[in-house]
Design goal:
Blueprint: E1 25-26, E2 31-37, H1 51-65, E3 73-82, E4 91-102, E5 105-114, E6 117-128
Antiparallel strand pairs: 1-2, 2-4, 3-6, 4-5, 5-6
């Protein structure tokens, strides 16, 4: 499978006019980090970020944590736990770290926090296409 980046990714693509434009930082220690404020156009229930958007952000931050291992990784599996509603128009902090590598599969743990409180977590398995 050929995977190309055309800067139109819904989560991080700067050329996607309808996207989230998440500015994710990748670190040398196989971690990633992002602060983002999700606007009301991505709400589910009144005042809350839609669960699909939360899952998307956790998925994307997990992929970025793998960037030093592989520039071409795709999500094989993601298990998201929603702990508290995530408010719209509020700064969110996302973090992810690689917890294991086995052959072509990379395990990642991620979390989304609001003012230091965990609102959602994810365990992701990323398939390394390289």
């Amino acid at each position: 499978m050929k995977v190309d980046d055309d800067k139109h990714c819904f989560a991080c693509g700067q050329l996607n006019e309808h996207g989230l434009h998440a500015g994710i930082i990748t670190n040398d220690d196989n971690t990633s980090y992002c602060k983002i404020t999700v606007p009301s156009r991505f709400q589910g229930w009144k005042g809350m970020v839609h669960g699909g958007i939360i899952s998307t952000l956790l998925d994307e931050i997990s992929i970025y944590a793998c960037r030093k291992i592989s520039l071409r990784g795709v999500t094989a599996e993601i298990d998201v736990k929603f702990r508290k509603p995530v408010p719209i128009d509020t700064e969110l902090e996302l973090k992810a770290k690689v917890t294991g590598v086995r052959r072509k599969m990379v395990s990642v743990e991620a979390e989304l926090t609001v003012e230091g409180t965990v609102h959602a977590t994810a365990h992701t398995r990323v398939y390394n296409l390289e």
